[in-house]
Amino acid sequence: MGTMPAGVVQGWAAMIMGILSGSIPWFTMMIVHKRSRILRHVDDTLGVFHTHAVAGSLGGICTGLFAQRDLANYFVARLNEQGAFYGGHSGGRQFAKQLCGALFIIGWNLVVTSIILNVIRLVIPLRMSEENLLIGDDAVHGEEAYALWGDGEKYDITKHGASEYDDTQHGLDSLNVRPHVAAPNSGPSAAPNVEL
Length: 196
Known about the structure:
Elements: H1 11-35, H2 48-66, H3 69-75, H4 88-123, H5 130-135, H6 137-140, H7 157-160, E1 180-181, E2 194-195
Antiparallel strand pairs: 1-2
Helix pairs in contact: 1-2, 2-4
């Protein structure tokens, strides 16, 4: 939200906009999204709607409210434009322009994204089956989320070893196998011996 109006608002307005840009998208994601019948059916695990649509629209609306004439003259093609907060005919006009711009972008995104997704749908399904979703998309692809052992590879006890402090199963539960960690060899570079 902060990039759009950065050059056309004064410091006090930027602080208000910062407070709004932190709290309103959070509120829509954590409260409104969970209570809305429509939004609860939207699979938006990354909160893209809230961080881009809500925050972006808010940035445009705040520009229409708080744009200061002298600063806007440096950036806006039409001179003496100002936000609605400063009043006058040009203030309301700038606010209306920002609202129209936000509505156009929302409409454009809905149409273009729908076209792209429908073309992709012809080739592959857009959503995994419920069975695969229960397993988890990372597990279905043979990966581990937040894998610390390498670039998305599964933990391989034969490759990565184990330690006496390791009480995780690493997929060995299904085999009813528990790694046995032998006492490490002496020396600073000795690796533990692992027996399955």
